[in-house]
Write a structure and sequence with these properties.
143 residues; mainly alpha
């Protein structure tokens, strides 16, 4: 039962982030905007970070499944960033692992703080900062 819930949240359940082709600054911005909107609508009540907070410390099996969900999300972000770098939109020295992790951390940390404070503003701020970090690695042609 718990496994099915984790899988649903990780595999684009109703509250999971829309993880289409995140392979441009515009697509990443739309993804961030959707995360903020979703936070406003749901109050962050049904996301993977909630499951992680509740299950990851006491159940090693659940922790592994949650980790796999995050790794799938991270892989989608890395693939999009790689496509951007391959097209010359990100500098060749851009650390795609770090950028993807920064985006994922902004999503999940913003969700947790937004839920705690009862406002989508932390999500908006964290996503804005993460996107600014990605843009700091963009080539002039991409901006």
């Amino acid at each position: 039962m718990i496994s099915a819930v984790i899988t649903r949240q990780a595999d684009a359940g109703p509250c999971a982030p829309p993880l289409g082709a995140l392979d441009s600054l515009e697509a990443l911005q739309a993804w961030a905007d959707a995360a903020v909107e979703r936070q406003q609508v749901t109050g962050g009540r049904c996301d993977l970070s909630t499951l992680a907070a509740e299950l990851s410390t006491g159940d090693p099996s659940s922790r592994g499944e949650i980790r796999e969900g995050y790794e799938r999300w991270r892989a989608v972000l890395q693939a999009g960033l790689r496509a951007m770098r391959d097209r010359g939109e990100l500098r060749p020295d851009a650390d795609l692992d770090e950028l993807a992790l920064a985006l994922l951390t902004a999503l999940q940390g913003g969700s947790l703080l937004a839920r705690t404070l009862g406002s989508a503003e932390p999500m908006r701020a964290s996503m804005h900062a993460a996107l600014a970090y990605v843009r700091s690695h963009a080539t002039p042609a991409a901006l």
